[in-house]
Amino acid sequence: MSKLERCSFDGSNGNKLAADVGGPADGPPVLLLHGGGQTRHSWGNAQRELIDEGYRVVSLDARGHGESDWVAGGDYGLESQVADVAHVARALGRPALVGASMGGINAAIACGDDADLARALVLVDVTPRLEPEGIDLIERFMGANPDGFASIDAAADAVAAYYPGRSRPASSDGLRKNLRLRENGRWYWHWDPAMFNGGREAKVQAMRERMLAAVEKIRIPTLLVRGGQSDIVSMAGVEELRAYLPHLEFADIAGAGHMIAGDRNDAFNHTVASFLRRHAGAAA
């Protein structure tokens, strides 16, 4: 099994960003950026497969997520998140960026702002157009249980209710990395609740406008991977993105929802690895 090293990177304003790093030091760099409410551990299998292909792979906790710093004053705005991505990408030296949902938004904007930031871009189930029903479902899940859970199994019950079509793992231990045990004996999700401050509609509209302005300036190879059953990205959203980004490559993963890497891990890994072999430098 590929060995991972725990390390940290500086964010754009001195905040510390936790990461797992693995693969040969001279391998082509790949930066994995998770979605909102997730942690770097959501990429577990994908990261290890890319490492085995010879890439130097960094899986990063976004600000306010996982083991990265919770930012004083609750600065989780779009521009600060984008600046964090750009800061880490420059430290790695033109990596391929693979971003899911929130991570994809931040990566796309960063690449539009700086043509030399990355060598390739993979967007995982995210476009400038996001379907409101899917956003509502995510926000209800993330806003539920503000008082935490009595046990990891109780958290697993909440996840199972959110993903009714997904087979429940035999053990709930895998959730441990996404939860924090506080002094009161209850388990809480590994993100700062201050991320939800402010109006959602204004945030979504600002993201859309910023992302559309950015993607039309992207010239690097770009792949959009959509979950065939996604409630976040519609085919109308795919076609809109293609109009702004004519060289876009597209893969639709049958049987997967918004959480593609978890729903159809093998198909997702194969799709991303194939794209990176062609566009992200020759791995061993």
What features would you describe in this structure?
- The chain is an alpha/beta fold and 284 residues long.
- The protein is built from 9 helices and 10 strands.
- The protein has helices at residues 44-52, 78-92, 102-113, 132-143, 152-162, 200-215, 235-244, 260-263, 265-279; strands spanning 5-10, 16-22, 29-33, 56-60, 96-100, 120-124, 179-181, 187-189, 222-227, 249-253.
- The strands form 2 sheets. It has an 8-stranded mixed beta sheet, sandwiched between helices.
- Strand 7 (179-181) and strand 8 (187-189) form a beta hairpin.
- Helix 1 (44-52) crosses helix 9 (265-279) and helix 2 crosses helix 3 (102-113).
- The two termini are 17 Å apart.
- The mean pLDDT is 92.
Mean pLDDT: 92
Q: For the largest sheet, list the strands in their spatial order.
A: 1-2-4-3-5-6-9-10
Order of helices and strands: EEEHEHEHEHHEEHEHEHH
Number of helices: 9
Which overall shape is indicated by the principal axes computed on the Cα atoms? globular
* DSSP strand tally: 10
Q: Return the structural class.
A: alpha/beta
Q: Which percent band covers the strand fraction? A: 15-25%
For the largest beta-sheet, the strand count, sense and barrel status come to:
8 strands, mixed
How far apart the termini lie comes to 17 Å
Unreliable runs? none
Query: What share of the residues lie within helices?
Result: 25-40%
What Rg do the Cα atoms give? 18 Å
